Description:
The complex is a heterodimer.
Chain A: E1 7-16, H1 22-31, E2 52-53, H2 65-68, H3 72-87, H4 92-95, E3 100-105, H5 115-123, H6 130-137, H7 140-147, E4 154-157, H8 163-177, E5 182-189, H9 193-201, E6 222-223, E7 225-233, E8 244-253, H10 266-279, E9 286-290, H11 297-310, E10 316-317, H12 320-323, H13 330-344, E11 346-347, E12 369-370, E13 375-381, E14 386-394
Parallel strand pairs in A: 2-6, 3-4, 3-5, 9-10, 9-13
Antiparallel strand pairs in A: 1-7, 1-8, 5-7, 8-14, 11-12, 13-14
Chain B: E1 3-12, E2 15-16, H1 18-27, E3 33-38, E4 44-49, H2 63-66, H3 71-86, E5 97-102, H4 108-121, H5 128-133, H6 138-147, E6 153-156, H7 162-176, E7 181-188, H8 192-202, E8 225-232, E9 242-250, E10 263-266, H9 272-282, E11 287-288, H10 300-314, E12 325-326, E13 338-344, E14 349-356
Parallel strand pairs in B: 5-6, 5-7, 10-11, 10-13
Antiparallel strand pairs in B: 1-2, 1-8, 1-9, 3-4, 7-8, 9-14, 11-12, 13-14
Helix pairs in contact in B: 3-6
Amino acid sequence: MTCSVPIAVTGLGCLSGAGMNLDENLVTLFAGRRYPGPPIRFSTDHPVAYPVLELRDEFKLPLDEEQLVYARTGQLALAAAREALNDAGYDDESLQGKRVGVCVGTTVGCALNCDDFYRDYKDGSNPGMAIIERYLRSNPAAVIARQLKLNGPVQTVVNACSSGTDAIGLGASWLRSGACDLVISGGADELSRVTYAGFSSLMITDTGPCSPFDVSRKGLNLGEGAAIMILEPADATEKKRVRGLIRGYGSACDAHHLTAPRPDGAGLKTALNEALQTAGVTPQQISFVNAHGTGTPDNDRIEGRVLRELLPQVPFLSTKGYTGHTLGAAGAIEAVYSLACLERGEIPASIGFSEPDPEIALIPVIENTPLAGRVALSQSLAFGGNNAVLILSAGGV
Amino acid sequence: MRLAIQGIGVTGGFGAGVAALRSALQTGTLSYQDLMVEHHDGVSDTFPVCRATTEGLDRFVPKRELRRIDHFSKMSLYAAHLALEDAGLLDADLSRIGVVVATGYGPLKTTFNFLDSYLDFGYSCSSPTHFSNSVHNAAAAHVSMQLKLTAPSLTVTLFEMSVASALLSARQWLAEGRVDRVLFGAVDEYCEVLRYCRRHFFGAGEQGPMRPLDFAAQTAQVGEGAVFMVLTREAEATAYAAIDAVVLGHHPSAPVELPRAALLVAGADGHRQCSRWYEQALKDRPVVACSPYYGSFPAAAGFDLAAAALMLKDGRVYAGPQEACANLHESAPDTKVTMASLKFGAGGDYGLICLSR
């Protein structure tokens, strides 16, 4: 495995339950606030109202009529892409003539889990095709490519909860190969009744605000959102503000269980080591880890043990307490947060943590903490046994 | 970088394995089942579907382990094992084989089974088994688990463009040396809801027979299946063909540039909405469409690729039904050299995969 050429990040965009743009997100994180509550956009007959983190403001994009018929995930992706492109100094026109790729991760955004339609179908109510047509229009990467009239490679990654991390790693790879001049990469997912029912059926949702890495953690809170990075070759950004670099990426499969991480963390270790090697950095150079940290007993135990073994002195946090678990968007949101934190030179408290778990024997940061270095690691674990890790650094080359 | 196709495994309406695909292509045998569907109003109708088999999968995976695996993942498991067997790698060291899977719709039947669990019995009775198998990467996960593949795994979805898009990343992994081989698959499944939607969209046009190059008519017939290929960067391992280029684009804004002299395997599958793009791009080019052998579904682009690779290996054109080939007379190029598979989406997006022997 050889060292990868760093890829420049020239724009960031993010919206989640912590804010409608990246600046709002950061204000929420560093103020130590979070806003979990019962779902507003859908209802169920489930006896427990598990808290979720929905977008707090009514989500209104400056969209024309055609765009409004995209499913919510596609709209979230497009909103984050527009924020990131604006941050990078691009408008729609200035993208024309460039080979622009789009690589976006999702889970809900590609699933035909339209339960209103299906209920009518089961009842024999002969539902029309409007919902299906919207689904067919709403593949998140295709939405961005179509709306911005792009002509480069397009890919929607569906690696469950590591999708956003993988999409950024793959997007960087496209640039290294010369397949495009610029890549819009990240992740997006909406909150859905279907995943709400699914995660509660797995009994890994907390009845209160989640507590990543805490000894009393009971599970995750679901969330929604999107985050996008604008990636460009580092040598093509002379006059641009470079917000950071994608230095390394690694991924590996547990090949163990559909929903549970491998007990020895072997897949995560492999992914982490690949990311370090391709970044050409040592564990000592990592200034913090933005952990997957869902708050489920299994995930945090395995992830914590791996961090204790491979990066024992490195400060770490989970931002899931602020955003909830945004599934296919999570890795992208956390990568964007990681770069923004490197820029600020500090990380927020890992909200929800109060008492250490002896099985993990590590304590995440419990207050806003200044950073000693310029390199961060952001990692994701996923259904299907996927593990994906990004290494990012502040500033340019 | 060229990719060598070292092995192919496939299951579709024609049967399972490369020999079954070759036999269908050689003999022109189509294998549609008429499924009877009873509607809520008591009226029933029949619907031709090209269904894939997983009979024989227990040769590779014990039946006990298959009990909780759905049809979508079983098709994938079967094709993946067949591909490794075809490449002579079933007993080899698989530690550096990555998995890349393309799917247009994911595990549809299990998705609706999960919805059934809470619509029928309430949210507190939602099925965790159906939920965890309803994610798009469930097939890749089962393949990795059964074969103990711990290298990177990726699942891509982009409707008709899924195969070409996923192939880009497979090639990238090999070029970067992340893996030594990629087990590359494409899979989609049939389900009743899909039939309902297609009936709404296309009406009687789905009754067949498929005439993929009759661009004025809607003649698609639904199919399903899984195809896997062992891809490697080692040229000497080429058993079928080499993939020279993968191009994705948007035909209306930048028309597709077809390789000269290559015989085209068109992904045309009787969808009128896509036909105009084929009509514009193909013009008088020699072309075959193999979709009648496996039916219409997004991942069928992977079957087009397999058919092209097989023709290159065998050094002959399997022309198929008369309605599915054009301009193959004397001007047909030497298929021992180059072919290309071309798939259009409804909006003019295209995936072009160029192959050579």
